[in-house]
Write a structure and sequence with these properties.
The chain has helices at 21-33, 49-52, 64-73, 87-95, 106-110, 114-119, 134-143, 178-190, 207-210, 217-232, 245-251, 278-282, 299-310, 333-346, 391-396, 415-426, and strands at 39-41, 78-80, 101-102, 170-174, 193-197, 237-238, 255-258, 262-264, 275-277, 291-295, 314-318, 349-351, 354-360, 363-368, 371-376, 379-382, 386-388, 403-405. A 5-stranded parallel sheet has the order 6-5-4-7-18. The protein has a 5-stranded parallel sheet with strand order 9-16-10-11-12. It has a 3-stranded parallel sheet with strand order 1-2-3. The protein has 429 residues and is of the alpha/beta class. The model has no long low-confidence stretch (mean pLDDT 96). The relative contact order is 0.12.
Length: 429
C-alpha cells in the first residue's frame, strides 16, 4: 500500500504505508511460536487487492520470493498460491525450495479434476484459469455468487450435471469460437454426434486476438484446451470451411447450431487506409506505427492500449463516456482497478467525454466540451464493440426444424457468457 486504499503497482517506487516485509517476517515468527503448524504466504490486502487476488496483469507465480523469505525465516511448511496454475512452475517452486505445498484456488474452480489429470499424465487436458476473475471474484462482489467463467458447472454442479441422451442426434455446429467449441464438447460428452465447421484455420474465435498480449496468454491456452478436448472426444472439425445454406441442407443434420460470432464495428473517419480494428492490430495484420490512438475505452481498447504501450508505442485512448471501463462487468475490482492504474503508470494517455470527428493527414480531430482538439498519430485503432454475425441463422431459420443461435452471433458478450450460453443449450438438446 502506498496510501489509504491505494495499492502500488509492480515496478513502482513507493513508500510502504501498510505492513511491510520486516513486519511480516516478525509476524510469521510469532505465529509459529504460538503453535501454528504451517503458514500460507501471500501479499496484499483489500486496499491493494490486485496483489492478493492477482489478475492476468500480474506475472505468474508472483509470490515466489516471499515464499523463499518465509522458508528462511521459520521451520514449518510454507504454502504458496498466486497464479501457480502451471504444473511445471508449481513443481519447480517446490523443488527449488520456494515452498513446501502449492495452493490452488481459482484453477480448481476452472477444473476440479486438475490434480487427477496431472497425476494421470494428462496436464494438457487441464482446463486453464484465465485470471479474468469475472466468474469468481467479480460475481462474489456483484452477486454474492461464486462461479467460473470457463467452467459453467462450478458451484452449480447439481443443476448443471450432464444429461445423457437415449437417442443420439447428428448435430452441425457452425463456428469454432468458444460457443461453438463448448457446444461440441458438451454434446459429445452427452452422447450426441457433433460435427464442427470453422472458416479459418484455427479454433478459438476472439480468443486469438484477445490472447495476443503476453499478459493474456491463458486465452490462447483455453483455445488449445478446446482443441485437445475435441480431439479426445473425437469430434470431427472441418477447417477452412465457410458453411452455406446449401451445405446445411445437403448434410441431413438433425440439429444445427449457428455460432458464427461477431465482427468489429467500423466507421469512416476520412483516411481509412490508416484506420484499423483492434483485432487486426492484435493479430499482427496491421502495423499501427509509433504513435496511435485507440478509440474506445472498454476492456478490449484498454488492454490493446496497454499492450502497445508496453511494446514501445505511444498510445492515447479516446473514450466517449466520462471514464474508462465504464460498461464492463461484473469485472472484479482487482482487475479493473489495476488496469485503470496501469494505463497512466505505463504512459498511456486518455481523453474521456470526447468524440472523434475525422482523421486526415496524420491528425485525429476530437471534440471535447464543445471544443475541437487535434492529436497527431500514425494510425487510429477502432475498439468500439462488435456486431453479431447472424445472417446465416436468418437464412436458415424457416428451413431447419431444430436450429439454435449461440454466442456472439446471438448477443455480443464475453468469454464467460458465450461459454455458459453454449453449455446450457447443448446440455438440453
Amino acid at each position: 500500500m502506498k496510501d489509504w486504499r491505494e495499492g502500488a503497482l509492480p515496478g513502482e517506487e513507493f513508500h510502504e504505508e501498510g505492513r511491510d516485509l520486516d513486519e511480516g517476517i516478525e509476524a510469521a515468527k510469532l505465529l509459529v511460536n504460538y503453535g501454528y503448524d504451517a503458514l500460507d504466504v501471500d501479499v496484499g490486502c483489500y486496499d491493494a487487492w490486485w496483489w492478493n487476488h492477482p489478475p492476468m496483469y500480474q506475472k505468474k507465480a508472483l509470490y515466489l520470493d516471499y515464499g523463499k523469505v518465509m522458508k528462511e525465516t521459520v521451520d514449518v511448511p510454507i504454502l504458496l498460491a498466486g497464479r501457480m496454475d502451471n504444473p511445471d512452475t508449481a513443481s519447480k517452486a517446490v523443488a527449488d525450495g520456494y515452498c513446501d505445498i502449492v495452493s490452488l484456488g481459482r484453477p480448481l474452480l476452472a477444473d476440479p479434476d486438475y490434480v487427477n489429470k496431472l497425476r494421470g499424465d494428462k496436464a494438457r487436458c487441464i482446463r486453464p484459469c484465465i485470471s479474468c476473475q469475472e466468474g469468481c471474484m467479480g460475481r462474489i462482489q456483484t452477486y454474492s455468487m461464486i462461479n467460473c467463467a470457463v467452467n459453467p458447472q462450478t458451484a452449480r454442479e447439481g443443476v448443471t450435471e450432464y444429461r445423457p441422451v437415449l437417442a443420439s442426434k447428428k448435430v452441425m455446429i457452425i463456428g469454432g469460437g468458444v460457443a461453438g467449441c463448448e457446444a461440441a464438447r458438451v454434446l459429445a460428452i452427452r452422447g450426441h454426434k457433433p460435427e464442427l465447421f470453422e472458416k479459418s484455420s484455427r479454433l478459438g474465435g476472439n480468443l486469438l486476438p484477445g490472447g495476443a498480449p503476453d499478459f493474456k496468454e491463458d486465452d490462447l491456452a483455453l483455445a488449445r484446451w478446446y482443441e485437445t478436448e475435441l480431439q479426445e472426444l473425437k469430434v470431427p472439425v472441418h477447417f477452412g470451411t465457410a458453411v452455406t445454406k446449401e451445405m446445411v441442407a445437403d448434410g441431413h443434420y438433425d440439429t444445427v447450431i449457428v455460432a458464427t460470432g461477431s465482427t468489429p464495428k467500423v466507421f469512416s473517419l476520412g483516411d481509412d487506409a490508416h484506420v484499423y480494428t483492434a483485432e487486426d492490430v492484435l493479430l499482427g495484420k496491421k502495423d499501427p506505427g509509433q504513435n496511435t490512438v485507440v478509440v474506445g475505452g472498454g476492456l478490449v481498447g484498454c488492454e490493446t492500449a496497454l499492450w502497445l504501450q508496453e511494446s514501445g508505442k505511444n498510445v492515447t485512448i479516446v473514450e466517449a463516456l466520462d471514464k474508462l471501463l465504464a460498461l464492463n462487468g461484473p469485472l472484479c475490482s482487482a482487475n479493473k482497478e489495476m488496469l485503470e492504474r496501469l494505463l497512466p503508470f505505463k504512459g498511456v494517455k486518455s481523453v474521456t467525454s470526447a468524440r472523434v470527428k475525422k482523421y486526415e493527414n496524420g491528425t485525429l480531430t476530437v471534440e471535447k466540451d464543445g471544443k475541437e482538439e487535434s492529436i497527431a498519430c500514425d494510425s487510429v485503432i477502432l475498439s468500439v464493440g462488435y456486431r453479431s454475425n447472424d445472417s446465416l441463422y436468418h437464412d436458415l431459420e424457416f428451413d431447419v426444424p431444430e436450429l439454435y443461435l449461440l454466442g456472439d452471433a446471438k448477443k455480443v458478450s464475453n468469454i464467460m457468457y458465450g461459454i455458459w450460453d453454449a453449455f446450457e443449450v447443448a446440455n438440453h438438446i
